[in-house]
Amino acid sequence: MQQLHNKFVLITGASSGIGRACAEEFATYGCHLLLTGRRKERLDDLKAKILSKYSVEVHVFCFDVRKKDEVIAFSNQLIEKQITPDILINNAGLAVGRTKIQDGIFDDWERMIDTNVKGLLYITRCILPLMIEKNAGHIINIGSTAGHIIYPAGNVYNASKFAVKALNEAINLDLVDTNIRVCSIDPGAVETEFSLVRFKGNEEVAGQVYEGYQPLSPKDIAEIAVFVVSRPKHVNILSMVVYPTAQRSVYVHRKEA
Known about the structure:
By secondary structure, the protein is α/β, with parallel strands linked by helices. The protein contains 8 helices and 9 strands. Helix content is 43%, strand content 15%. The protein has a 7-stranded parallel sheet, sandwiched between helices. It has a two-stranded antiparallel sheet with strand order 8-9. Strand 2, helix 2 and strand 3 form a beta-alpha-beta unit. The longest helix has 29 residues, at 106-134. It is globular and about 50 Å long.
């Protein structure tokens, strides 16, 4: 895929999971990387790993997408460096807790909404004008099947991912007079730190989420992201819903031990 060579790929939440896998996958095609996240040590480790294997540029930026001023400062750094991302992967996102509305924890709700919705908006608002100036680029929003169908006690997380689905469609409409393409990749169960974060470090409960079947891997989603952005320029894939074979809708077929 020669068309990806020397492209700049901006990935939020690149320190683990799907974000990290996207960084490694795009590097194999000669893409330069702009990696963001809150855990600098992990970002630095990823940078060192990629630079040891590929002849690409890797720039690390440590900040929180929930904080508007930090996002603006980051975009100003890109302007100063005269770097315009060719591909933006809005990957930063999380679920926190799994309780019914009447038992919900306000801080958990705010953390999900601030990261999954407002963080995506802040990054997109700051980066998109740079793409529009070049009239080129591709945005990938990492959504979720939780943005298509509600599951018990998913409530606010579901709502945040329904918002990502709506924003993905809205951004597409807002860019109809440009060459910039926008796609939402919406995975089902992917084995990452997602459940560990959701259940606040409870490894036993988090591990049960992936027992009895083969979930998707972060690399699966990274490969799909590469496929999406490497389509001919007249092809815009609006969204892709991706389940592991053992999962259909909210139902997972688990094999008995």
